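Fold sample X.
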Amino acid sequence: MIYTKQEYYTPAEVAIHNKSGDCWVSLNGKVLNMTSWLEKQFRYCKCPKDCSCPNKNWYCADDCIEYCRCFKMGYEYCDAKRLAMTILAYAGKDVSHWFKEEDWITYMHPIVGSRIPFMRHGSSFDQPVVPSTRWRPIAKPWWLDETIVVGKLTARTRPIRITNTLTSSSVMLEVCSEETIYQIMMRYLPHNAHMHSYTWRHLGKPLKYHRTLEQNKVYDERDRFSDVALPENIYVPDILLYYNDDLTEDLPRDGCVCFNRECASKPEICKNEP
């Protein structure tokens, strides 16, 4: 058994990382871990803040913003904190609509007549509309930083049922359509820690573990069911697990984890080294 690192994530798996101490977002098919970036942004400004409400009372309107002295003077690190609050508000969600390919979407400014980034939820480190000596370009913006990428967002999820013929137990999983059988095994691993001694079959034919479900002719027919007004879950493909009775034991997971994501598609390149 080759224990591979997870490569694809479902939107539901991204959505559970929705806190400041555990913040993920999806952008253009990639899943980004913004936790360390947020911690860095929140350390930039710690000065006291003044409410922008005209009347200083216990109630503030929805459009009230807490400004600090740094922001009123135009320093950029307060902009960074405002952007961090925006990222935190979208934690666990997709932010691809903010960008066009690898840059922010732009609009034509009605006063200066130049094309500038359109940041509907707050400003950031980007260049101001009017040239300023306080603006300094950043070498690597967060949306282009490959070090915070944890995986890929699946283009389509699909349900699959896995049945253990030895124990007659059945598990329904939501998997990614791009995942190979090896990667689906990793999702099923918490339900059966002794998978090394099982053969996976569908309709009586053994599955090829380095191929996807579609390549193994386990088709997703939910669109066909919807076309004829049938429920999508009227039929879910079932993978049967047959016990080999070979008296083998799985290797410890700590000593044979393959961190190379290509192991799932090309298991021959994995050397089972941590």
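Fold sample Y, listed below.
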Amino acid sequence: MFTFKLQLLNVKYLTSFEFTRFVHFESNYQLFTKHFGLYHSKAKEYVEKNRLSRIAPDMIMKIVAYCNELGFDNNSLLKNPAVLRLHPNTLDQYYLVMKEGGFINIRPEMLSKFRTLYRKPILVLKERNFINGQTDVAASFINNLNPCPKDFYVKTKGDAEVWSDVHLKVLSAYLKWRLQATEKEITRLIKVHPTIYRKSFKYLCENITLAEELGFTPEKMFKYGYILQGYPKYTKEVLEKYPLIAGVCMKRAMRMYPKLMTTSPSNVEKIYNILKEHNIPDETIGKRMNVFQLSPETVETRLKEIKRVADFKVLLHNPNILKLVVHHNRAKSRLTFLKELQLKCASVSVLGNDDSKFNVHIREGRDANTFSDIYAFLKGIFKKEISEFENTLKKHPYYLQVPLTSMEDTYYYLKNEKFTNPAILKVIYILLYPREKLENAFAQIGQYKSHNGNDLSQVNRLNLALYIIEKEHHFTGDGIWSKPETPEENIL
């Protein structure tokens, strides 16, 4: 325990990845002492030697539980640590495809060497008694096809053929029949999604059936080939547990974002909880369901970064804020580019647009928000609908050309000066003016009050501040600029 406390003193100097490995190492060696009965020193040595500090403890326990279901005891797992480094889904796929391809008495040492064994000629596998001598491997694979065409036959070289090549021949022939595919389409599919080369036929058939039930055509299955190599247990469980999430039908979401078919139910739950913890409403989540394609850790990290960066944080009330989570790296790159061009209005509409719209925005040199961006910002602050401020705000000629960060800064300054939301709302375009100019105007109003002894209402103070600022600019609206600028015309 003392040693552990000493180690913790150095945790703050670790990177995020190193810290994760450190925590996993401490948890994992304790796991091997408790669950496998190893002494502490042996457990530490085992975890370190077999690179298990990178694996989360709960993932190891899932692997152990799955292996125990297959009848493997803990001692056999200890002798084959490579199995403990596999993802449970991968292990399940390996076991199933080996069984489909005629392997018998499958043991941990066979699973740990799967990638070596599946490249072996069938004759070698039979000589080592991994496959029964009488087994027709191609027929064994075909028996697991559902549905299977009548009199389905695949020509092979017999036992001289490499086991994986027989799998590929059956796979190609089946996809040609089931999806009316060409040789070229299948070659491209395997090149882009190589794990399908080792896919269990049971799971492949289930993936095709699920895709058909969701309305995917064969052409779309090839276009989004990852849905054929996914883990159908996940898809089924997600549809069962979350038929509706954030008010959106999950089947419809999967049709719109096919990659959702590869998302685990635990990730759906974790991501939804993270979004709610960050006060993201269902209406916003429903607009960007592809957020569930990310990992929970990625969603958490990106939301925290959005809250740290002023230009992003001010957009949190926008119903499209999850665009900046899904396309976070692109949004960061665009924000940097806008600053280099000295364009100050960085809204979701700009940062989250597709490339063609963003390029038009840059080419035309626009430095303006859209009204929808301003509306979302003001609605988030005042909890009021558009009708409460639209007509007043639009009276100002440059209401679209003030950065939201500047409007937010002015709002919080007014709140610190004890102005109420109703008062600010009545003089809504006060938010378009820089804080420094308002400070100077209020100083002049203070001098007026000291001379005349008259108290002004909050609304009158705000209107008077506007009068003082705009008087210098002949009431043209140019008072919103921090320094002399030439506003663009007709930016709407």
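Sample Y note: The radius of gyration is 32 Å.
Also: Confidence is low (pLDDT under 50) at residues 1-23, 486-492.
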